[in-house]
Structures are given as C-alpha cells and as structure tokens.
Amino acid sequence: MLNFTVTRTGITASAVGFNFATADNTATAGSDYVVASGTGTIAAGGATGSTQVAVTINGEAVFENNETFFVNLSAPTNATIADAQGVGTITNDDTAPTLAINDVSIVEGNSGTSDLVFTVTRTGLTALPASFSAAAADGTATAPSDYLAALVGSTTIAAGGATGTTTLTATINGDAVVEANETFFVNLSAPGNATIADNQGTGTINNDDTAGIVLVQSGGSTDVTEGGVTDSYTLVLTSQPTGNVSVALNPGTQVTVASSPVVFTSANWATPQTVTVTAVDDAAIEGPHTGTITHTVTSADATYNNFPVANVVANITDNDLPTLAINDVSISEGNSSTQLLTFTVTRTGTTASAVGFSFATANDTATTADSDYVAASGSGTIPSGGASATTTIAVTITGDATFENTESFFVNLTAPTNATITDPQGVGTITNDDTAPTLTINDVSITEGNAGTQNLVFTVTRTGLTALPASFTAVTADGTASAPSDYLAALAGSASIAAGGATGTTTLTATINGDFIVEANETFVVNLSASSSATIADNQGTGTITNDDTAGITVVQSAGTTNVTEGGATDTYTLVLTSQPIGDVSVALNGGAQVTPSPTPLLFTSGNWNLPQTVTVTAVDDPVIEGNHSGSIASVVSSSDGNYNGLVVAPVSVAITDNDTPGVTLVESGGNTVVTEGGATDTYTMVLTSQPSANVTVTPNGGTQLTNPPAVVFTNANWNLPQTVTVTATDDNVVEGTHSGTMSHTVASADTNYAGLVIGQVSASITDNDSAVVAFNPISVSQTEASSPMAFTVTLSNPVASGVTLTLDSAPGSATAADFTPIVTGTVSFAANSTASQTVNVVISNDVLDENDETFTLALTGLTATGNVTLGTAIATGTIQDDDLPPVISITSPSQLEGNAGNTPMNFVVSLSAVSGRDVSFTRATADGSATLANNDYLQLLPAGATILAGQTSLPITVQIVGDSVFEGNENFRLDLSNIVNATIAVPPLIEGTPVVLTGTGTILDDDQQPTTTTITSDMPDATVVGQPYTVAVNVAAVTTSPLGTVTISDGSASCGPVTLTTAAAPNSTASCALTSTSAGAKTLTASYTPASTAFAASSGTTAHQVNAASTAISVVGPARSRINQPTSFTFALSVNAPGAGSPAGTVTLTSGTATCNVTGADGHAELRADLHDAGQSHGQRRLRAEQRQLPGLQFQWRRQRADPGVRAERHRGDQDRCGRYLPAG
After folding, report:
1. CA angle, residues 543, 545, 547, in degrees to nearest 5
2. Model-level pTM?
3. Residue percentage of the chain with pLDDT more than 90
4. Does residue 752 contact residue 785 with C-beta atoms inside 8 Å?
5. pLDDT tens digits for range 995-1007
6. What is the DSSP code (8-state) at residue 143?
7. How far apart are the first and last CA of the chain?
C-alpha cells in the first residue's frame, strides 16, 4: 500500500473536500497498481490539516525500471488546489536477468561459406530489453582464413517471459585442406539490464577433408584400337595438398600415354587431369588383348606420398584383319508374284579363319510397309582361304500394278568377325514398269444471282492406281462470259491429287459475279495442262452462268391503298424497276380531273433503277358536295431499252374524301380560356362552316363553375362572321386550387343540317381565390400514463374541394417507444368540402417503472390537397405524467475466504426491487466491525458516489480482502450506503429526520489452519500389569470449532487406534481406546491427533503410566525313574498370574548337580546329559533342577551318560527331587 498525504494549509471553519483519481505514467493500472478514485475530506481546524489517499501496489517478480503514476486532485470544495498532482514511485526490487552463450560446432565444408549460429539466452523475468556486446576471438582457428570475425545478429533480447533468446551468426570459410578440428570464441561483455553468467561461447570447425586420388575412366572402361581409336581417363585429388603431388605413369609395352608424370599443386588439385591412352600399332595379329598402366605417387605432403592408385587396364582392338564389301544390284518390278534380287558379299585378303558377318535390309524409297520387298536379316560366312572369296544374300521383290517411281532399298553389313567392312551397304534398285494414270475435268453451271458472288466448283478426277501425287496446271478462258465482270479469272483449289486407290479427285473454284441485267446465259472454260505423274484425257471444263433477271416496274401504295381528302390529307405510292436497264426509262403520270400526281415524269437510269421513287397524290379541292368518290392515275413508259419501252404499268386507284359538311367552329382567344374567381374573364368566338338555309341559334351553358352567357344567332347572311362569347368564373368560398369549368353548347335551327348539331365544348382554366389552414389545436396535451389514450385534435379552417390528407408521425422525446405506441407514417384526412375536426389517439403504455414525466411529439407533414392549403401549428407535444413509486434499494451481505496472501475481492451487490427509469445514486463507504483496518483485514473504501443507471437493477461493489496465514476466526465489516436518491429502503428510520443508511455486512471466512491441543484426560486403571488392558481417554481442542480426525495412543511399543474423534462442545472433540502394554516399566503414553483436513493442525499429548510384571508358576511332570544314558522326557507347565494371562517370554534352565540345560524357544523340549560317576559314584540318586525361562509346557528329555556298559538305571523319587526356575526375558 502506498499512502499519499493531502495537506490543507490555511485556517478554515468548514471541512475541505476534494475528488481524487489515479492516472498512469510509466506504471500501468491493473498490472502495477490498483486504480483508485473517490472523494476525500479534511476536517476544519487550525493552520494545517491532512488526510491520506491509499493506493494498492501490485508486487511482481519482473525486473524493470522504477515506475511512476499520479494521483490527481480535482473539484475542491471550500479550498483551492495548489499542487494537484502527487507522483507515486514504485522502486524495482527484482534481480536483473542473466545472459549465457552456448557452444556450437559445424562441419567445415569444402568451399564457399556456411553459417555457425550461437544462441544467447536471457534467464529471468524482465520488462526491459537486455543488451550486450559480442566479439569473436581466435582459438586454433584464425580470422579471416577460417572464419570471419564480424558477427551477424541482434545484441538485444526483448523483454518478455521467463526466458528469451537472440542469435549471433559467424561465417565459416570452407576449404579442402586436411587439417585438425579448429576452434574460435565469441565473448560477451558490457551487459545492459542484465548480468552475464556465461560470457564465452566456443565455436568448433570440424574438418571434413581426407586425402585421396580419384581415377575415372571415360565410359567406365578404357578401349583403344591399334592405329585407330584412343581413349582417356582422368586423375584428380580429393583434398588440397600442402606440397606438389607427382603421379608417374608406367604404360608397359601395349599402350603409350601422352604425358608422365602428372603433377598436382595446391592450385590445380581439384582440376581433373586427362591421361590419353594410345594402343601400340604393331604388325602382330593378336586379336583383342589388353595393356596395363601402373601409377607411382611422390609428394612432400605426407598424406599423399606413396598414396596407392589403382591400375588402368586398356582393352585393345587388333587392326590386322581382311575386308568385306557388298555390291549394288537392280531388277524390273513386275506386275504380280515375287522375284529374288541377289547381292554378292566379297572377302578381300588372305585369312586362316572363316570370316563372318550379320546382314539386314533397310528401307530407302522402297519400303516393306508398301510391300515393295520382303525384309531379310541373318548372318553370313565366307570360308578361310586365298586372296578373295564370296557369298550371296537373296531378297524377295514383290510385283504390283501401281504406277510409281523407281525405288531402292539397302542391305547393310554389320558385326564382322575376323575381318573389317570396307563397303557395308548394298543398294537394291526396283525399276517401275506400270502405266501413268489419266486426268479429266467436268462441266458445271450456276444461276447468276442479283448481287455479291457465288462459287462455281469444277472437279478434276484421276483414274488409275498410283503411288505418286498427280499434278497439273489449270487456267480459265472467256467464252461468252467475260472476266472480271462476269467471273474472276483466278481459281481457288489444289492442282494436285494425292496418291491412293483407283481414283482420286480435287476441286477448282471460280468466283461468279451476280447482276440485275437482263441478258442471255454465258459460258467460260477451265483448261488443264502440264500434268505430272499422269496424262490428261479431258483437258477442258465448261462453266455456264444462267441468267435470272426480267424487266418490270413495281408499284407500292403506302399502307396498301391510296386515300386523299379534298383540301386535306395527301397520300403516296412508289415506283421502282425490277432489273437494271441499259438505257434511261421515263414514266409519265396522268391523274385526270380528280387527283394531281407529283412529280411527273419519273426518270430511272442504270444508276438509280433499284431506288424506289415516291409519287405524292393530292385531291382536287372543289366546292362540289360529292360525298366520297375516287380517281385513277395512269402511267406511260418510254425507253431506249427495248425491254422497257412501252412496258404496261397497272393504273393506281385513289379513294377521295369530300370536305363539304355543316358545322360550327370554336376558336379560343390566345388558344385557351383562363378566368379567375371574382376577377379576370376571357372570350372565344364561334362561326358556321357552311351557309345555313335558316337561322341557327347556339346557346352556351357554363355549369356550376362558369356563369351562363347569352345565346348567339347565325343567319344565312352572317354565318361566316365569327361572334364573341365572354366567359366568367363562378365566385365561391371553396378551396379548389386551379380548376376547370366546361362551357357546353346547344344548337337549334329549322335547317336540318344544323338542327340538333353536336358541336365542341370550351374548357376554361379557373384560378381559385380561396385558402385554408390545417393545425393542431391545442398544441400540447398532458395526462397520466394510466389514462390511455391521449387525444390530439387537428382542425381545418375552410372546406377544400379535393379533401386534405396529411402524414402523421410521432417522435420520441424523453418518452421512448416503450412509453407509448409510436405512429409511423400515419394518416389524417379531411373529406372533400368538410371542415369537421379530426382526432388523433396515441396509446400510452402503463408501467410500474418509476421515472420522470416524459414527453413526445406528433408532427404533421406531407400535406396533400388541391388549392391554397397550408400548415399552421404542425407539431403538438404530449406529456406522460408518471404515477409509479420509486424502487426499494437493498444490499447483499457476502462472505469470502480470506486467503493466505495478497488481496481477494469480496463482491457486494446493490440491487433495486424493480427497474427504474431514473438513475439511482448513493454514497458508499466501508466501516470496521470485528474486521478492522488497523489489523489490515480489508482495504478501506473511502466515501464516494456510485450510481445504478436507469434501466439497470444492480451494481457490484468490490472490497479487497487482505489475506494472511494467522488464524483469527471469521470477522466482519460493514459497507454503508447513504445519501440515497431516487430509491427507498424497505425499513425506513423510525425517528423522523434520522439519516437513511443501508448496511451490508461482509464476512471474512478465516481459512487458516486452527492450532489444536491434545490432552490425555485419563488412563484407567493405573497402574496395570503386563497383559492387562486399560482405557485411555483423550480430548482434542481447537480454537473455534470441534476438530475432526483420529487419535492413536502408544506406550512406545504397544498401541491402540486410530480412533475417530467424537465432536463435543466447541471447540472440543473426544476419543478413547483400550491399550494393553506388553512389557513392564514406567510408560510414557503418547496420544497423536491426525486431522481429517488441513483446517486443523496436528498435535499430541503425553502422560505417565506404570506397568508391573506379572507373577508366574512352574509345574514339572516326568517319570519316577530313568536310566543312565537313556533319554527321559519331562514336561514343564509355566502359568502367568495376571488378568490378561498371555504367554510370557524368557529362558528355562534345567539343572541336575553340576549339569545344566537352557531352553529358549517354543518347542518345550530339552535334553540333559549328566555324568553320574562324579565324586566316585558309579550310580545312585541325583536331584534334578529345572529353571524355566521360556514358555509353559516345555518338554525335556533326560539322558544319563554311561561310564561303562554295565551301569544300571537310577531311580528318581518324584517331583521333590526336581525343581525349575523361571527367569523372565524382561
């Protein structure tokens, strides 16, 4: 515990108060110290006063710097703060960690570098990084040849757990020198935040080099030929020598070597050196034989001097042999069956041995796959003999009827024996004797088409078996068709037909151009020439282009017919040619008296012939009332193209609508009619469309929205003069917004064409001059939460024609959705033309939650109406008046095991009887009971405010219990709650004005071991004799409660128990048991208590007890007479005179004169031998004495030793002549 002192300086008549709170600096709350905050008070008084603020410091075993934290003062009452911050320093008292470096080793390697990694280990908890310096130092290894002195790695080990490590890496240089293992050191020094326990790591470089000479024969063996092929092998050392190594070569008589000796130095030792081996070219015919090369090594390097190197054996091929050659032959193929083609193999050179060889055929242009010949292989022999000799090889040739080139194949000689081959290959030629195939091309035709291109495909056919591709040249030539206008001269396709069966084909494609010209069918040709591997039987194919064009004029009426109106709608149709003309085509149009076609004439050329030209048809507008009638347009065609000149074109029929009808035309001034209620008027005019035969009266009717103007009269004189009608809006008080009225008309006349004639209406746009206001009235409503619903009123000041609709939403204030039923996108509506007030009901939630009065609001938005309708007061406030009692506050009285060390939290829980809608606050502080601050039983909570937030029902308050190992019994202290706000207690003070204090009692359960006292309260009877039971009673007393366990009682040898304790009045327990001592003497009785648990300590108690020896008696039974030197049996009975009886232990001694016998054991039998001739007697009576020192019932056999064979047996007279004495073992 670290105590800060807060000092008041200055005289004051009032107590001084302040708040305090801890704050981290380098020390951290939770791990280094326990957060503390609260309020403090210094009593009023003299010039100075003080109080203390205690902060709990957490001990630990981690090495770290001294650390600090702050206690900050704030919120002074009746004082100012001169120094607001106290610094608490936690001084480190833990030992610095230690550093140690390990020893490591590595295999050296032959080249390059490798890493040898040392590990530096920190041992000990620390919060600080440990640092050090590290440097390498030579041992038997030297830098920089064996290793590099510079180390790679971190010389800092991070703070952390019980151990930490870092690595240091040394670079090791590999070499190939044979040497001893070498060492160097890494020394640690200058530690920071640590001490060094092992400052030196040893690095061992293990040598991995050995002396050796590696011999490698190329191909795995050495093979040479006399006068021909040489071979080689290489020598190389396995390690770098310290002196030159010379390898002398001795090749013998069969081979030679290029250089000897071969010398290796410390520079070239790893570079293989080549020894070239050449056979000695002699004239001896030796056949295959061998030569041997030996090696002698000398060097100043002892590891290489006289080093053994294996011999090299060279396999030698003799070059003294005769030669073999095979000839070339040919044959005509034939059309069927087979023939033999014979090759001759000739030996040149005299030989004493037969010459052998192998042969096999091989494909060239002739192949076995094409069945040109039959494969042959085998071996041949030419006998020994003179300067030359021959043998033959026959190959079967297969005839066919297929045209092909002359072909060849080979017969190859290999594997000669007793000879060499000078010409190993014979060529067999098969001459072709078959006729070449023929080529033909077909005739084809195609329809020309109107545009684009098409392909016209010719087929060239080969007839006749062939093994060769047939090729040719193909070229187009004009007939009546011309290139490139009708077709393209270039052909696409292959001019070669592959070899194969009896026939084969290929295609040639010509490109044909389409057109629209009326013309005759046309032709062109494809000519074949320059054939190869074939002859041409039909060299020309004809291609015919068939014409598909005709002359014509197409007429297309829009929508399928032509319809026009006098003085109104026109219509159209189009003309287009069906083929391209070779001269201009003119089409003249004639509409007669009813219609007019335009334009005319129409001209088509070879450029625009396929583009439709449009003719516009207009009706002739006359004053004649004709009703619907028709007209016709004729076409006359002229052209220099005979296909078109005078061509007949069908006439075009036209349907005509007459435009002469009765009617009344209405024209609004400005194009529309706009009026204002109580304000601006507007006008429109009316006129007849035809002259009536009698007066025509038109009467306007304005309905409810417009006033009715006077009727208008037309005569046959003024029928075509427009007359004006004035429009006036009806002025009402209904809010309608801009709306419309309709002026309808009634026509009356004696002219039947006008009587009852239906004419159009005039729609007038009317500007409204009325307004209305929608609002809450009143704007606030209050009622208790139990009186649901809460009613709000919405009013409308004037009727609205469209009706009024508004969106209604509620919004929480201090009241939330739990307090009332929210309204989301609700609707308030006024019917059309109605001003009846609307009521909005809000459902209030009645609860038992004590809370403040709460408010919410309703808002009108989204007004929908036609006209000048506005929102007045759009927000109303509802107040829910709380009618619930505050909750009852209570506090638990917990208990907590004390613990043996450190602090243990005891949790009090302050609870409310119900959830409250208001924060419940109080002041909490601890107070001594049987547990006190003075005895360091718990840590004080100074008075400080605490709050149970609204919506919560409890708050834990923790008091730290201080553990110890001293048994004190259970203790208690108080946690007092005062200044309670927004809650009541279950039992208020009986005296009015007494401060309300709620108390929880904390019980500290003592968990320390209770000492005990063990007392032997009685041992009855006392004294006792050996073997007599007696009862020992024991009492075991603890401090507070009756102990549980067992008691064992011992006199040093005998014991009774363990006996289970019986609980008595606290803190006592009792037990008793019967003990029987097995030996006599002054005994110390010891009662040992063994606890049933660790709650009680073991104890023992002693008392004195006397045990006396038990008396014994001996009776002897035996024969009255016995003979000398004859065994005699006696029985001794030993009895114990004691309450417990039992079997005493000891020794029985039997005496007769000067003879004695001791018996120890349980068999009860003894033998006594006595010389009865003592004192000059040869026979007579003897007194036998037995002293028994063992068990009762012992059997003794007596035997008299005879002096001579004639001695007679002596008679004994009974028990009085015999006696026994018992000597107890104890």
Report:
1. 165
2. 0.33
3. 65
4. no
5. 889 999 999 998 8
6. T
7. 67
